[in-house]
């Protein structure tokens, strides 16, 4: 890549069931906060990218990039929606970074948004199932909890991972979410509560699953060499990797890791010239608790099969060897699918700036985000460093 | 932009009601033809972009980039879906060109696809309406023919444009489509037939409207300085412009032109260092006949208000001053919404190579594509030159 991008402003809505905020208003709220944070005027923005999975099915609205740039008052700049299921936000961030690198634009917004609660619950699950292979998976009745349950069973069988270890992921992420004012849940939970919660797709119980969430998130990118004009604490995007895998589970040689995530991580590490040991903290895609365990293995924070143990040892908690999902993760912060990849970047930026309040990781200088689409058909990994 | 891209391979499916081709098979067919045309192996491809408007609503499938890269056998390369309603294809082409410019990828596929006929007819119109503002337009009953009928009425009122002039657009585009083996319609029509066809939203009649179509299209990009490795006749993307406007008509100061198209054209002309007079032929977004008349005005091929007259004088026919929609346009070739922007580029490439058969424009060296999302909330313009 020819020109590095830096994040100079971030903004979020509260995540949750936002009955009083429409799709368009959510985006404006997150965007306004990002502009204020960057201390810039909307007229300085050259282009926007928006990650959104399925406004078409959730609120019968396509062409959301047009809707958003209009209601943000930013016409006639180009605004482009990208979609990669639950990785839509991460892909939007990547496209924004590529646009900056190309030289075609300087100041570029990367946003993510999903309005998921203005629909019947069954219809939400049905829309989410459209991230899997409609003909070979969803049509025969497999839902997303079902797909991840298959992965969990195999992980337990091959590596001895336990349901309690998975529960510990949820417990940690709820604990972190309590420290994040934007998180959907501000309630601590216990391993016993997770274990005795209602089964969804065994071995996954309801407290192993990320929730249905409304939310929007926004980051503002500038060329790294211009970033100091906007902020004393730019965060540089040092590496970006995106990769794909078969959309269906049945075509993969293994169920205990996501090849797309492994490949995206390899690309991002190489571009950033760092190793897993150099990462101070990571926001990973814990759509289900087993997904976080697989993620920390796929990212190289431990050996394949040891993610459950690493969690049990407390090494993924704040203060541990590699704090994971300090913002609360998808489980505790909430998972507005198109917004998640951007919200992950917001958390890393706050941490690298030293602005993460009670959940601050001391001395954090290098952070990573890991965003997965569907059951791993798409994965995006970004690596960030605090600018000097 | 730092590095120019060239198109080195093109491929299309037949456009029409493709009962025997599923979504995934359409994409493979178009992609395989593009690979054969470029004479390259799929393993040389570094990344893909796919334009698709609404597989979510049409076939209940999101995450289509994952589906496509999987079924093309090209995992683990990154594949990204972009959506901008009927401009999805044009936006995909632009993102592919930006990716090449950034240096992150060399060989990049830009594809477009839509499967529109596997659904009840009313549901298709309803899904298409989600390209307009759901809350301020679609919810109160306005459909796309209704929005363009408003524009047509105002154009007639301000400039004296006639229904017969609009009909002549359809007649010309059907005539061109008869010369294009990939077109949906191979039937010539007359002005009288258009005038006496069933009203859809007055003054627009059914033969003023582009059809519902299945189809896929694909182009392969390489850095311009590598293009000669693949073909003796590369086509260089000299300019790209994308712009936005309010999504709703009621917020615009005028209904007789699309500001997004004017702005996108200005950007593309400037980047390519050409003027409207330098363009030898153009593929424009004739979703309705009035849209072609507005397009040729917005692109500067005639003064505002004179598009109807230019059409009546035959100057937009093959052999005229500025041949428009030699491939048959959306009206005659068909309009699989996400594929249209790419299919326009395919036609320009064939023309600039001198491979357009009976519809060849003699001596064509510079071509333009004009792709519109919704009622003009998004527009994308590309300018192409025959490489030396």
Describe the SSE topology.
The structure is a homodimer of 388-residue chains.
Chain A: E1 5-12, H1 23-38, E2 47-51, H2 55-59, H3 64-71, E3 79-83, H4 88-102, E4 108-114, H5 121-129, H6 144-159, H7 163-177, H8 191-195, E5 199-201, E6 204-205, E7 215-223, E8 235-244, H9 259-272, E9 281-283, H10 289-298, H11 307-312, H12 329-333, H13 337-353, E10 366-373, E11 378-386
Parallel strand pairs in A: 2-3, 2-4, 9-10
Antiparallel strand pairs in A: 1-7, 1-8, 4-7, 5-6, 8-11, 10-11
Helix pairs in contact in A: 4-13, 7-10
For the secondary structure, the number of strands of chain A is 11
Dominant shape of chain A: globular
User: Largest sheet of chain A, if any?
Assistant: 9 strands, mixed
Q: What ranges of chain A have pLDDT less than 50 throughout 5 or more consecutive residues?
A: none
Measured on Cα atoms, how large is the radius of gyration of chain A? Answer: 19 Å
CATH superfamily of the largest domain in chain A: Thiolase/Chalcone synthase
Average pLDDT for all residues of chain A: 97
Instruction: State the helical fraction of chain A.
Output: 25-40%
Helix count from the secondary structure assignment of chain A: 13
At CATH level 3, the topology of the largest domain in chain A is Peroxisomal Thiolase, Chain A, domain 1
CATH class of the largest domain in chain A: Alpha Beta
Strand content of chain A: 15-25%
Quaternary state of the chains: homodimer
Indicate the CATH architecture of the largest domain in chain A: 3-Layer(aba) Sandwich
* Strand order within the widest beta sheet of chain A: 3-2-4-7-1-8-11-10-9
Total count of domains of chain A: 2
Of all chain pairs, the largest interface belongs to: A-B, 64 and 64 residues
Order of helices and strands of chain A: EHEHHEHEHHHHEEEEHEHHHHEE
The chain-level structural class of chain A is: alpha/beta
């Amino acid at each position: 890549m020819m020109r590095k991008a830096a994040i100079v402003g971030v903004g979020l809505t509260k995540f949750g069931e936002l009955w009083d905020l429409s799709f368009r208003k959510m985006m404006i709220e997150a965007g306004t906060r990002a502009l204020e944070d960057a201390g810039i005027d909307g007229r300085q923005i050259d282009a926007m990218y928006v990650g959104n999975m399925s406004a078409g099915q959730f609120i019968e609205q396509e062409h959301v990039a047009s809707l958003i740039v209009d209601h943000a008052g930013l016409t006639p700049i180009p605004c482009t929606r990208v979609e990669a299921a639950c990785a839509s936000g991460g892909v939007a961030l990547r496209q924004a970074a590529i646009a900056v690198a190309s030289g075609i634009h300087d100041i570029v917004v990367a946003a993510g948004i999903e309005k998921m609660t203005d629909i019947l619950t069954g219809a939400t699950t049905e829309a989410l199932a459209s991230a899997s292979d409609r003909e070979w998976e969803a049509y025969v009745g497999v839902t997303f909890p079902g797909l991840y349950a298959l992965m969990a069973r195999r992980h337990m069988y091959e590596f001895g991972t336990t349901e309690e270890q998975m529960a510990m992921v949820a417990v940690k992420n709820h604990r972190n979410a309590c420290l994040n004012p934007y998180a959907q849940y501000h309630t601590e939970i216990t391993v016993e509560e997770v274990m005795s919660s209602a089964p969804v797709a065994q071995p996954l119980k309801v407290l192993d699953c990320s929730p249905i969430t409304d939310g929007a998130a926004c980051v503002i990118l500038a060329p790294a060499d211009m970033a100091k004009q906007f902020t004393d604490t730019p965060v540089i995007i040092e590496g970006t990797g995106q990769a794909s895998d078969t959309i269906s589970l049945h075509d993969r040689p293994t169920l205990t890791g996501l090849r797309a995530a492994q490949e995206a991580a390899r690309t991002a590490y190489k571009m950033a010239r760092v190793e897993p040991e150099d990462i101070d903290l990571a926001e990973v895609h814990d759509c289900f608790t087993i997904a976080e365990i697989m993620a920390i293995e796929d990212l190289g924070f431990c050996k394949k099969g040891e993610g459950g143990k690493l969690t049990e040892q407390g090494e993924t908690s704040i203060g541990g060897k590699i704090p994971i999902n300090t913002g609360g993760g998808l489980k505790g912060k909430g998972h507005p699918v198109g917004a998640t990849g951007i919200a992950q970047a917001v958390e890393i930026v706050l941490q690298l700036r030293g602005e993460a309040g009670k959940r601050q990781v001391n001395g954090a200088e290098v952070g990573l985000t890991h965003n997965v689409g569907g059951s791993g058909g798409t994965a995006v990994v970004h690596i960030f460093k605090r600018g000097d």
